[in-house]
UniProtKB/TrEMBL annotation:
The keyword Signal applies. It comes from Roseibacillus persicicus. It comes from the Bacteria. This is Lipoprotein. Residues 1-21 form the signal peptide. Keywords: Signal.
Length: 207
């Protein structure tokens, strides 16, 4: 069985599972930088697209210079403050919103000028559980779940069950959206949480 590597994020998308780490400015762990033994590959094309996005992102840059409309989370911006911004010469971006009062509560928005490949199936979930009196790794299948993003029904899945220095991670598949100016972009959303905020936080995004 193949497995995946990165940090979303942390997370980007699709074009976008994480290849660098996720945090306020340096995002922490997400799907693609988990240890190779920790998660099953969904689809090589999905993984590759995410890695391309993640590897090209750098802190800062101009969101106004992007060819795609910038998807944001206005309500989180009002309560949590401005997100950290990363962009790339290829036209990708990532916004990272973090709760200043609670660790492990974040929303990451990945934007791309190109469509994300459609994952074939959600990955299997690996978690540490007691097995026959000892701690062992248990592999479980999962089904697609769904949320509503700007009127669209969007599938999402569990990226990671978290633990230690990270919360749980939840990711949508790629989303095609048309902005108020009729420009089209492609997006992936990632939630980190320890308070059960998936899928409600996915619906926080808007223009």
């Amino acid at each position: 069985m193949k497995t995946t590597t990165t940090l979303f994020f942390a997370g980007a998308l699709c074009l976008g599972v994480l290849a660098t780490a996720c945090g306020p400015t340096t995002p922490r762990t997400t799907l693609s930088n988990l240890p190779q033994s920790s998660v099953s590959v969904i689809d090589p094309s999905w993984e590759k697209a995410n890695e391309i996005v993640m590897s090209s992102l750098n802190e800062g840059g101009s969101l106004a210079a992007l060819s795609i409309p910038v998807l944001r989370a206005p309500s989180l911006e009002s309560s949590w403050g401005k997100p950290s911004v990363e962009t790339s010469p290829q036209g990708f971006y990532r916004l990272t919103y973090e709760d200043p009062n609670r660790p492990f509560e974040r929303l990451l928005i990945y934007g791309s000028p190109k469509p994300f490949p459609r994952p074939i199936a959600p990955p299997k979930i690996l978690s540490e559980e007691m097995v026959n009196g000892g701690l062992g790794t248990v592999e479980k299948t999962q089904r697609w779940q769904s949320t509503t993003v700007l009127g669209q029904t969007v599938p999402w899945y569990i990226e990671s069950t978290g633990g230690g220095a990270d919360g749980e991670y939840f990711s949508t598949v790629g989303i095609r959206l048309t902005g108020p100016d009729d420009r089209v972009g492609y997006y992936r959303l990632v939630i980190e949480t320890i308070t059960g905020q998936a899928p409600a936080r996915f619906s926080k995004v808007g223009w």
